[in-house]
Amino acid sequence: MSTDIFELDAPKGNSIAGHLLDLGSHPLEFLTDCGRNYGDIVPLQLGLTSACLITNPNYIEQVLKDRNSFIKSRGFRALKTLLGEGLLTNEGESWFRQRRLIQPVFHRNQINGYGKVMVEYSEIIRDSWTDGEIRDVHADMMSLTLKIVMKCIFNQDVSDKEAENVANALDVAMNWFESKRKQNFLIWEWFPRPENIRYRNAISKMDESIYSIIQQHRDRNYQDQDNDLLSMLMQARSEDDNSQMSDRQLRDEVATLMLAGHETTANALSWTWMLLAQYPQVEAKLWDELKTVLGGRLPTVEDLPHLQYTNMVIQESMRLYPPVSIFGREAVEDYQVDGYQIPAGCVVMISQWVMHRHPKYFENSEEFIPERWENDLEKRLPKGVYIPFGDGPRICIGKGFAMMEAVLLVATIAQKYQLKLVENHPIVPQPSITLRPEHGIKVEIRKRD
Ligand code: HEM
Predict the structure, then answer these.
(1) For atom 9 of ligand 1, which residue has the closest CA?
(2) pLDDT single digits (tens) 82-97
(3) Distance from Cα 110 to the centre of ligand 1, integer Å
(4) Is the CB of 147 inside a 6 Å radius of any atom of ligand 1?
(5) Which backbone phi and psi does 193 adopt, to 5 degrees?
(6) What are phi and psi of 190, to 5 degrees?
(7) How far apart are the first and last CA of the chain?
(8) What's the pLDDT score for residue 164?
(9) Domains observed in the chain
Protein backbone atom coordinates (compact mmCIF):
# COMPACT_ATOMS: atom_id res chain seq x y z
CA MET A 1 0.00 0.00 0.00
CA SER A 2 1.37 3.42 -0.87
CA THR A 3 -0.04 6.91 -0.34
CA ASP A 4 -0.22 9.38 -3.20
CA ILE A 5 1.60 12.50 -1.98
CA PHE A 6 -1.15 14.70 -3.39
CA GLU A 7 -3.51 13.32 -0.73
CA LEU A 8 -1.30 14.84 1.97
CA ASP A 9 -2.03 18.13 3.76
CA ALA A 10 -0.91 21.27 1.96
CA PRO A 11 -1.36 25.02 2.28
CA LYS A 12 -4.25 26.43 0.31
CA GLY A 13 -3.23 27.57 -3.16
CA ASN A 14 -4.69 29.84 -5.82
CA SER A 15 -7.17 27.96 -8.07
CA ILE A 16 -5.13 28.67 -11.24
CA ALA A 17 -1.54 29.39 -10.20
CA GLY A 18 -1.56 26.99 -7.23
CA HIS A 19 1.31 27.95 -4.90
CA LEU A 20 3.30 29.75 -7.58
CA LEU A 21 2.58 33.25 -6.32
CA ASP A 22 3.61 32.43 -2.75
CA LEU A 23 6.75 30.70 -3.91
CA GLY A 24 7.63 33.49 -6.36
CA SER A 25 7.04 36.40 -3.98
CA HIS A 26 8.33 35.14 -0.60
CA PRO A 27 9.89 31.70 -1.11
CA LEU A 28 11.81 31.41 2.18
CA GLU A 29 8.87 32.35 4.40
CA PHE A 30 6.47 30.21 2.38
CA LEU A 31 8.67 27.09 2.47
CA THR A 32 9.43 27.60 6.18
CA ASP A 33 5.70 27.70 6.85
CA CYS A 34 5.25 24.48 4.83
CA GLY A 35 8.11 22.81 6.67
CA ARG A 36 6.91 23.76 10.15
CA ASN A 37 3.16 23.33 9.81
CA TYR A 38 2.71 20.35 7.51
CA GLY A 39 4.11 16.83 7.22
CA ASP A 40 7.44 15.42 5.99
CA ILE A 41 6.21 15.82 2.42
CA VAL A 42 4.17 18.85 1.44
CA PRO A 43 2.52 18.61 -1.99
CA LEU A 44 2.58 21.84 -3.99
CA GLN A 45 1.18 22.96 -7.33
CA LEU A 46 3.29 25.41 -9.31
CA GLY A 47 1.03 26.40 -12.19
CA LEU A 48 0.87 23.24 -14.29
CA THR A 49 3.85 21.66 -12.53
CA SER A 50 3.40 19.24 -9.63
CA ALA A 51 5.94 19.64 -6.90
CA CYS A 52 6.55 18.83 -3.25
CA LEU A 53 8.77 20.03 -0.44
CA ILE A 54 10.48 17.28 1.56
CA THR A 55 11.71 17.96 5.09
CA ASN A 56 12.44 14.49 6.46
CA PRO A 57 16.27 14.16 6.36
CA ASN A 58 16.04 10.45 5.47
CA TYR A 59 13.93 11.26 2.43
CA ILE A 60 16.32 14.06 1.48
CA GLU A 61 19.25 11.64 1.59
CA GLN A 62 17.39 9.02 -0.40
CA VAL A 63 16.50 11.50 -3.15
CA LEU A 64 19.95 13.09 -3.33
CA LYS A 65 21.66 9.72 -3.55
CA ASP A 66 19.46 8.36 -6.30
CA ARG A 67 20.79 9.67 -9.59
CA ASN A 68 18.82 7.17 -11.69
CA SER A 69 15.34 8.22 -10.64
CA PHE A 70 15.97 11.98 -10.48
CA ILE A 71 17.47 14.67 -12.64
CA LYS A 72 18.20 18.30 -11.79
CA SER A 73 15.09 20.46 -11.66
CA ARG A 74 13.92 22.94 -14.25
CA GLY A 75 15.75 25.89 -12.74
CA PHE A 76 19.12 24.21 -13.16
CA ARG A 77 18.23 23.02 -16.62
CA ALA A 78 17.55 26.64 -17.58
CA LEU A 79 21.21 27.32 -16.79
CA LYS A 80 22.28 25.01 -19.61
CA THR A 81 22.13 27.92 -22.05
CA LEU A 82 25.03 29.40 -20.07
CA LEU A 83 26.87 26.36 -18.76
CA GLY A 84 26.18 23.77 -21.49
CA GLU A 85 27.17 20.31 -20.34
CA GLY A 86 29.32 21.47 -17.42
CA LEU A 87 29.23 19.46 -14.19
CA LEU A 88 26.44 21.45 -12.59
CA THR A 89 23.96 20.97 -15.41
CA ASN A 90 25.10 17.71 -17.02
CA GLU A 91 23.27 14.40 -16.45
CA GLY A 92 23.66 10.63 -16.82
CA GLU A 93 26.77 8.92 -18.14
CA SER A 94 28.21 12.13 -19.56
CA TRP A 95 28.06 13.74 -16.08
CA PHE A 96 29.59 10.63 -14.48
CA ARG A 97 32.49 10.61 -16.93
CA GLN A 98 33.20 14.32 -16.40
CA ARG A 99 32.94 14.02 -12.61
CA ARG A 100 35.50 11.19 -12.61
CA LEU A 101 37.81 13.25 -14.79
CA ILE A 102 37.51 16.40 -12.69
CA GLN A 103 37.40 14.96 -9.14
CA PRO A 104 41.21 14.53 -8.83
CA VAL A 105 41.70 18.18 -9.82
CA PHE A 106 39.91 19.12 -6.55
CA HIS A 107 41.93 16.74 -4.38
CA ARG A 108 43.16 18.40 -1.15
CA ASN A 109 46.83 18.19 -2.26
CA GLN A 110 46.01 19.98 -5.50
CA ILE A 111 43.91 22.77 -4.04
CA ASN A 112 46.24 23.54 -1.13
CA GLY A 113 48.41 25.38 -3.64
CA TYR A 114 45.61 27.91 -4.16
CA GLY A 115 45.74 29.02 -0.50
CA LYS A 116 48.50 31.48 -1.32
CA VAL A 117 46.47 33.11 -4.11
CA MET A 118 43.47 33.40 -1.78
CA VAL A 119 45.48 35.18 0.92
CA GLU A 120 47.39 37.36 -1.56
CA TYR A 121 44.20 38.67 -3.18
CA SER A 122 42.49 39.17 0.20
CA GLU A 123 45.47 41.17 1.38
CA ILE A 124 45.29 43.41 -1.70
CA ILE A 125 41.62 44.21 -1.14
CA ARG A 126 42.16 44.61 2.63
CA ASP A 127 44.97 47.07 2.10
CA SER A 128 42.89 49.12 -0.31
CA TRP A 129 40.36 49.88 2.47
CA THR A 130 40.71 52.92 4.70
CA ASP A 131 39.65 53.46 8.26
CA GLY A 132 36.16 54.95 8.60
CA GLU A 133 35.02 54.53 5.00
CA ILE A 134 31.60 53.10 4.09
CA ARG A 135 31.64 50.15 1.67
CA ASP A 136 29.29 47.57 0.22
CA VAL A 137 31.11 44.52 1.53
CA HIS A 138 29.02 42.20 -0.67
CA ALA A 139 30.28 43.97 -3.81
CA ASP A 140 33.83 43.60 -2.44
CA MET A 141 33.37 39.88 -1.74
CA MET A 142 31.92 39.31 -5.23
CA SER A 143 34.86 40.99 -6.88
CA LEU A 144 37.39 39.26 -4.62
CA THR A 145 36.06 35.71 -5.08
CA LEU A 146 35.78 36.25 -8.83
CA LYS A 147 39.40 37.36 -9.04
CA ILE A 148 40.48 34.37 -6.92
CA VAL A 149 38.57 31.79 -8.90
CA MET A 150 39.77 33.25 -12.21
CA LYS A 151 43.38 33.24 -11.03
CA CYS A 152 43.02 29.61 -9.85
CA ILE A 153 41.39 28.55 -13.11
CA PHE A 154 43.68 30.35 -15.52
CA ASN A 155 46.86 31.08 -13.54
CA GLN A 156 47.47 34.17 -15.51
CA ASP A 157 46.34 37.67 -14.92
CA VAL A 158 43.65 37.54 -17.53
CA SER A 159 43.49 40.77 -19.52
CA ASP A 160 41.07 43.36 -18.19
CA LYS A 161 38.88 43.01 -21.26
CA GLU A 162 38.65 39.22 -21.01
CA ALA A 163 38.01 39.34 -17.28
CA GLU A 164 35.37 42.01 -17.80
CA ASN A 165 33.61 39.95 -20.50
CA VAL A 166 33.46 36.89 -18.28
CA ALA A 167 32.41 38.83 -15.16
CA ASN A 168 29.78 40.71 -17.15
CA ALA A 169 28.33 37.49 -18.61
CA LEU A 170 28.04 35.97 -15.14
CA ASP A 171 26.33 39.08 -13.85
CA VAL A 172 23.90 39.31 -16.78
CA ALA A 173 23.22 35.58 -16.38
CA MET A 174 22.38 35.89 -12.70
CA ASN A 175 19.99 38.77 -13.39
CA TRP A 176 18.47 36.87 -16.28
CA PHE A 177 18.02 33.82 -14.13
CA GLU A 178 16.34 35.84 -11.39
CA SER A 179 13.87 37.30 -13.86
CA LYS A 180 13.17 33.80 -15.32
CA ARG A 181 12.68 32.41 -11.85
CA LYS A 182 10.03 35.05 -11.20
CA GLN A 183 8.31 33.95 -14.42
CA ASN A 184 8.73 30.29 -13.39
CA PHE A 185 10.92 29.75 -16.49
CA LEU A 186 7.89 30.06 -18.74
CA ILE A 187 9.38 32.64 -21.11
CA TRP A 188 12.15 30.99 -23.03
CA GLU A 189 15.51 32.50 -23.62
CA TRP A 190 15.12 32.55 -27.40
CA PHE A 191 12.09 34.85 -27.20
CA PRO A 192 13.43 38.22 -28.52
CA ARG A 193 12.92 40.24 -25.34
CA PRO A 194 15.66 42.78 -24.52
CA GLU A 195 16.79 40.81 -21.46
CA ASN A 196 17.13 37.66 -23.57
CA ILE A 197 19.11 39.47 -26.25
CA ARG A 198 21.39 40.97 -23.60
CA TYR A 199 21.85 37.51 -22.12
CA ARG A 200 22.77 35.88 -25.45
CA ASN A 201 25.19 38.69 -26.33
CA ALA A 202 26.90 38.38 -22.97
CA ILE A 203 27.30 34.62 -23.50
CA SER A 204 28.90 35.05 -26.94
CA LYS A 205 31.39 37.55 -25.55
CA MET A 206 32.17 35.24 -22.66
CA ASP A 207 32.67 32.30 -25.06
CA GLU A 208 35.03 34.36 -27.18
CA SER A 209 37.12 35.20 -24.11
CA ILE A 210 37.20 31.66 -22.71
CA TYR A 211 38.11 30.10 -26.07
CA SER A 212 40.83 32.68 -26.49
CA ILE A 213 42.26 31.83 -23.05
CA ILE A 214 42.13 28.09 -23.85
CA GLN A 215 44.02 28.80 -27.08
CA GLN A 216 46.63 30.86 -25.19
CA HIS A 217 47.12 27.86 -22.87
CA ARG A 218 47.58 25.54 -25.85
CA ASP A 219 49.96 27.98 -27.54
CA ARG A 220 52.21 28.31 -24.55
CA ASN A 221 52.28 24.52 -24.46
CA TYR A 222 51.25 24.02 -20.89
CA GLN A 223 53.64 22.09 -18.72
CA ASP A 224 53.04 19.22 -16.33
CA GLN A 225 53.86 21.45 -13.41
CA ASP A 226 51.20 24.01 -14.35
CA ASN A 227 48.65 23.56 -11.66
CA ASP A 228 45.95 26.00 -12.63
CA LEU A 229 42.55 24.36 -12.93
CA LEU A 230 42.35 24.86 -16.70
CA SER A 231 45.75 23.21 -17.31
CA MET A 232 44.73 20.31 -15.10
CA LEU A 233 41.42 19.95 -16.92
CA MET A 234 43.31 20.02 -20.23
CA GLN A 235 45.65 17.27 -19.05
CA ALA A 236 42.98 15.04 -17.45
CA ARG A 237 42.55 11.73 -19.29
CA SER A 238 39.66 9.30 -19.05
CA GLU A 239 40.60 6.00 -17.37
CA ASP A 240 38.40 4.15 -19.88
CA ASP A 241 39.77 5.31 -23.24
CA ASN A 242 42.51 7.80 -22.38
CA SER A 243 40.54 10.54 -24.13
CA GLN A 244 40.72 14.22 -23.16
CA MET A 245 38.13 16.98 -23.02
CA SER A 246 37.20 18.86 -26.18
CA ASP A 247 37.43 22.68 -26.24
CA ARG A 248 33.67 22.84 -25.92
CA GLN A 249 33.73 20.66 -22.78
CA LEU A 250 36.57 22.75 -21.37
CA ARG A 251 34.57 25.90 -22.01
CA ASP A 252 31.50 24.44 -20.27
CA GLU A 253 33.50 23.33 -17.22
CA VAL A 254 35.37 26.61 -16.95
CA ALA A 255 32.12 28.64 -17.11
CA THR A 256 30.60 26.26 -14.54
CA LEU A 257 33.50 26.57 -12.11
CA MET A 258 33.43 30.33 -12.38
CA LEU A 259 29.70 30.59 -11.79
CA ALA A 260 29.48 27.88 -9.12
CA GLY A 261 32.71 28.92 -7.45
CA HIS A 262 32.38 32.63 -7.09
CA GLU A 263 28.96 33.86 -6.10
CA THR A 264 28.34 31.04 -3.58
CA THR A 265 31.53 31.76 -1.67
CA ALA A 266 31.00 35.53 -1.92
CA ASN A 267 27.58 35.11 -0.33
CA ALA A 268 28.90 32.87 2.43
CA LEU A 269 31.41 35.61 3.26
CA SER A 270 28.99 38.54 2.99
CA TRP A 271 26.55 36.90 5.42
CA THR A 272 29.45 36.07 7.73
CA TRP A 273 30.48 39.75 7.90
CA MET A 274 26.89 40.72 8.62
CA LEU A 275 26.56 38.16 11.43
CA LEU A 276 29.92 39.08 12.97
CA ALA A 277 28.78 42.70 13.10
CA GLN A 278 25.50 41.67 14.71
CA TYR A 279 27.16 39.43 17.32
CA PRO A 280 30.11 41.34 18.86
CA GLN A 281 30.83 38.55 21.39
CA VAL A 282 31.43 36.12 18.51
CA GLU A 283 33.57 38.66 16.73
CA ALA A 284 35.67 39.15 19.89
CA LYS A 285 36.23 35.40 20.20
CA LEU A 286 37.22 35.17 16.55
CA TRP A 287 39.69 38.02 17.04
CA ASP A 288 41.17 36.17 20.06
CA GLU A 289 41.76 33.06 17.96
CA LEU A 290 43.35 35.07 15.16
CA LYS A 291 45.68 36.83 17.59
CA THR A 292 46.70 33.56 19.24
CA VAL A 293 47.20 31.49 16.11
CA LEU A 294 48.56 34.11 13.74
CA GLY A 295 49.95 36.85 15.97
CA GLY A 296 49.63 39.45 13.24
CA ARG A 297 51.08 37.49 10.31
CA LEU A 298 49.13 36.38 7.24
CA PRO A 299 47.48 32.93 7.40
CA THR A 300 48.64 29.91 5.37
CA VAL A 301 47.03 26.54 4.66
CA GLU A 302 49.14 25.05 7.48
CA ASP A 303 47.20 27.27 9.92
CA LEU A 304 43.83 25.86 8.87
CA PRO A 305 43.70 23.01 11.45
CA HIS A 306 44.32 25.61 14.19
CA LEU A 307 41.69 28.08 13.04
CA GLN A 308 38.88 25.97 14.50
CA TYR A 309 36.70 28.83 15.74
CA THR A 310 37.00 30.64 12.40
CA ASN A 311 35.87 27.41 10.73
CA MET A 312 32.88 27.13 13.08
CA VAL A 313 31.93 30.75 12.35
CA ILE A 314 31.72 29.86 8.64
CA GLN A 315 29.77 26.65 9.32
CA GLU A 316 27.29 28.53 11.49
CA SER A 317 26.97 31.36 9.02
CA MET A 318 26.16 28.86 6.23
CA ARG A 319 23.60 27.25 8.52
CA LEU A 320 21.65 30.50 8.94
CA TYR A 321 22.34 31.89 5.45
CA PRO A 322 23.02 28.90 3.20
CA PRO A 323 24.43 30.25 -0.10
CA VAL A 324 22.25 27.66 -1.87
CA SER A 325 18.98 27.95 0.02
CA ILE A 326 16.61 25.96 -2.20
CA PHE A 327 17.39 23.29 -4.77
CA GLY A 328 15.59 20.37 -6.25
CA ARG A 329 15.29 17.30 -8.39
CA GLU A 330 12.71 16.13 -10.89
CA ALA A 331 11.48 12.52 -10.74
CA VAL A 332 12.04 10.79 -14.11
CA GLU A 333 9.90 7.83 -13.05
CA ASP A 334 7.27 7.09 -10.41
CA TYR A 335 9.14 6.89 -7.15
CA GLN A 336 8.39 5.58 -3.67
CA VAL A 337 9.82 7.01 -0.52
CA ASP A 338 8.76 5.41 2.76
CA GLY A 339 5.41 4.35 1.31
CA TYR A 340 4.67 7.68 -0.38
CA GLN A 341 4.23 7.77 -4.12
CA ILE A 342 5.96 10.61 -5.97
CA PRO A 343 4.77 10.64 -9.61
CA ALA A 344 7.15 10.97 -12.58
CA GLY A 345 7.61 14.65 -13.51
CA CYS A 346 7.12 15.88 -9.93
CA VAL A 347 9.67 18.46 -8.78
CA VAL A 348 11.03 17.51 -5.37
CA MET A 349 12.16 20.64 -3.53
CA ILE A 350 14.74 20.61 -0.77
CA SER A 351 15.51 23.73 1.21
CA GLN A 352 18.67 24.29 3.23
CA TRP A 353 17.01 27.39 4.67
CA VAL A 354 14.16 25.29 6.09
CA MET A 355 16.33 22.41 7.32
CA HIS A 356 19.14 24.50 8.79
CA ARG A 357 16.75 26.59 10.89
CA HIS A 358 14.58 23.68 12.03
CA PRO A 359 14.12 23.83 15.83
CA LYS A 360 13.93 20.03 15.89
CA TYR A 361 17.63 19.81 14.99
CA PHE A 362 19.07 23.07 16.30
CA GLU A 363 18.48 24.62 19.71
CA ASN A 364 17.86 28.39 19.48
CA SER A 365 17.81 27.75 15.80
CA GLU A 366 17.55 31.42 14.76
CA GLU A 367 20.61 32.46 16.80
CA PHE A 368 24.19 32.70 15.54
CA ILE A 369 26.11 30.37 17.88
CA PRO A 370 29.34 29.02 16.29
CA GLU A 371 30.09 27.02 19.49
CA ARG A 372 27.29 24.61 18.61
CA TRP A 373 29.68 23.06 16.04
CA GLU A 374 32.12 21.98 18.76
CA ASN A 375 32.64 18.23 19.23
CA ASP A 376 31.83 17.45 15.63
CA LEU A 377 28.15 18.41 15.60
CA GLU A 378 28.14 17.91 11.84
CA LYS A 379 28.83 14.18 12.30
CA ARG A 380 26.28 13.85 15.09
CA LEU A 381 23.42 15.41 13.12
CA PRO A 382 21.22 13.06 11.09
CA LYS A 383 22.42 13.06 7.48
CA GLY A 384 20.29 15.30 5.31
CA VAL A 385 19.87 18.06 7.93
CA TYR A 386 22.93 20.26 7.35
CA ILE A 387 23.55 20.30 3.62
CA PRO A 388 25.08 23.62 2.50
CA PHE A 389 27.03 21.73 -0.19
CA GLY A 390 24.25 19.26 -1.08
CA ASP A 391 24.91 15.53 -0.68
CA GLY A 392 25.18 12.25 -2.56
CA PRO A 393 27.07 11.78 -5.81
CA ARG A 394 26.42 15.37 -6.88
CA ILE A 395 27.74 16.96 -3.71
CA CYS A 396 29.64 20.18 -4.41
CA ILE A 397 33.00 19.35 -5.96
CA GLY A 398 34.38 22.66 -4.67
CA LYS A 399 33.51 22.10 -0.98
CA GLY A 400 37.15 21.89 0.19
CA PHE A 401 38.16 24.82 -2.01
CA ALA A 402 35.29 26.97 -0.68
CA MET A 403 35.89 26.20 3.01
CA MET A 404 39.59 26.89 2.64
CA GLU A 405 38.89 30.16 0.84
CA ALA A 406 36.29 31.35 3.35
CA VAL A 407 38.50 30.65 6.40
CA LEU A 408 41.65 32.17 4.87
CA LEU A 409 39.82 35.23 3.70
CA VAL A 410 38.04 35.90 7.01
CA ALA A 411 41.34 35.34 8.87
CA THR A 412 43.19 37.78 6.60
CA ILE A 413 40.62 40.56 6.74
CA ALA A 414 39.30 40.22 10.32
CA GLN A 415 42.85 40.48 11.67
CA LYS A 416 43.07 44.05 10.51
CA TYR A 417 39.49 45.30 10.40
CA GLN A 418 36.19 45.26 12.22
CA LEU A 419 33.12 45.79 10.05
CA LYS A 420 30.17 47.69 11.53
CA LEU A 421 26.76 47.65 9.84
CA VAL A 422 25.50 50.99 8.55
CA GLU A 423 22.25 51.70 10.37
CA ASN A 424 18.97 51.63 8.45
CA HIS A 425 20.46 50.00 5.36
CA PRO A 426 17.98 47.23 4.45
CA ILE A 427 19.55 43.76 4.33
CA VAL A 428 17.21 41.46 2.44
CA PRO A 429 18.06 37.84 1.57
CA GLN A 430 17.10 37.21 -2.04
CA PRO A 431 17.01 33.53 -2.99
CA SER A 432 17.95 33.21 -6.66
CA ILE A 433 20.48 30.56 -7.75
CA THR A 434 22.25 31.67 -4.61
CA LEU A 435 21.04 33.50 -1.53
CA ARG A 436 22.35 37.02 -2.01
CA PRO A 437 21.71 40.24 -0.08
CA GLU A 438 19.38 42.09 -2.44
CA HIS A 439 20.64 45.60 -1.64
CA GLY A 440 24.17 44.61 -0.68
CA ILE A 441 25.59 44.94 2.83
CA LYS A 442 26.76 48.44 3.73
CA VAL A 443 29.45 48.54 6.40
CA GLU A 444 31.77 51.02 8.04
CA ILE A 445 35.37 49.85 8.00
CA ARG A 446 37.14 50.20 11.37
CA LYS A 447 40.83 49.54 11.61
CA ARG A 448 41.91 47.60 14.69
CA ASP A 449 44.40 49.21 17.04
C1 HEM B 1 30.33 28.26 0.02
C2 HEM B 1 30.51 27.94 -1.23
C3 HEM B 1 29.72 26.91 -1.99
C4 HEM B 1 28.48 26.38 -1.75
C5 HEM B 1 27.55 26.68 -0.58
C6 HEM B 1 28.20 25.42 -2.80
C7 HEM B 1 27.04 24.66 -2.87
C8 HEM B 1 26.80 23.69 -3.83
C9 HEM B 1 25.67 22.81 -3.85
C10 HEM B 1 24.50 22.83 -2.85
C11 HEM B 1 25.80 21.98 -4.90
C12 HEM B 1 24.88 20.82 -5.28
C13 HEM B 1 23.77 21.22 -6.23
C14 HEM B 1 22.82 20.07 -6.50
O15 HEM B 1 22.98 18.98 -5.99
O16 HEM B 1 21.88 20.30 -7.27
C17 HEM B 1 27.02 22.35 -5.58
C18 HEM B 1 27.50 21.75 -6.73
C19 HEM B 1 28.63 22.16 -7.38
N20 HEM B 1 29.55 23.10 -6.96
FE21 HEM B 1 29.46 24.18 -5.27
N22 HEM B 1 29.25 25.41 -3.68
C23 HEM B 1 30.20 26.29 -3.21
C24 HEM B 1 31.44 26.56 -3.78
C25 HEM B 1 31.91 25.98 -4.93
C26 HEM B 1 33.22 26.22 -5.50
C27 HEM B 1 34.29 27.11 -4.89
C28 HEM B 1 33.27 25.51 -6.67
C29 HEM B 1 34.39 25.39 -7.66
C30 HEM B 1 35.49 26.07 -7.68
C31 HEM B 1 32.00 24.81 -6.82
C32 HEM B 1 31.67 23.99 -7.87
C33 HEM B 1 30.54 23.20 -7.90
C34 HEM B 1 30.25 22.28 -9.01
C35 HEM B 1 31.08 22.08 -10.26
C36 HEM B 1 29.06 21.62 -8.67
C37 HEM B 1 28.35 20.54 -9.48
C38 HEM B 1 28.86 19.18 -9.01
C39 HEM B 1 28.21 18.01 -9.73
O40 HEM B 1 27.00 18.04 -9.98
O41 HEM B 1 28.93 17.05 -9.98
N42 HEM B 1 31.21 25.11 -5.74
N43 HEM B 1 27.62 23.38 -4.89
Answers:
(1) 389
(2) 899 999 999 999 999 9
(3) 17
(4) no
(5) -85, 155
(6) -85, -10
(7) 68
(8) 76
(9) 3-447 (1.10.630.10)
